[in-house]
Fold this protein.
Amino acid sequence: MLYTKEISIGIDGVKCVEEVGELIKLVDRLTICSGLTPRGSEHAVCLGYLPENGDFTGKGRTVSRWCSECEAARKRQRDRERKRKVTSKPKHVLKINKRKNKRLIMQIHDVKSKMLDLQRKCADASPQGVEESIKMLPSIQQDAVRTCFAASRVKGTKGRRYPLNFIYDV
């Protein structure tokens, strides 16, 4: 299918045969703008051809097939498509991520419930029962356990005191 567009090349009329020859040479030298899409639709302010006096070379220094307006519009169009590709993920990837999220949320819930159970058990444990359990251990391990409990009560790490036997053993 042939796409046509009327373009203005700056000549109002032809008065003689020489002017027709010049007109044919002028039209032959024109580089037609390829437009925005493969179908040939062009930008609203596209002239339809590339002016001879302009420098229409691309990045690789090859002659461009588009006028400056169509080139800028094509760049904006490609940028929009590129952003759309980056931001949109396939649906199956989203489903997989939702499943992973749900699984992780369930794991977090299970760990929190276990932690709360252990905290309740520790709160219910009496100091006498803990002391009796510690007395069953060897003396070196008794010092280590008592030191760990003492360290857990202190907020900061500075100023902590350790027994000499614990320091020698560690």
About this structure: The beta strands are 31-32, 49-50. The mean pLDDT is 75.
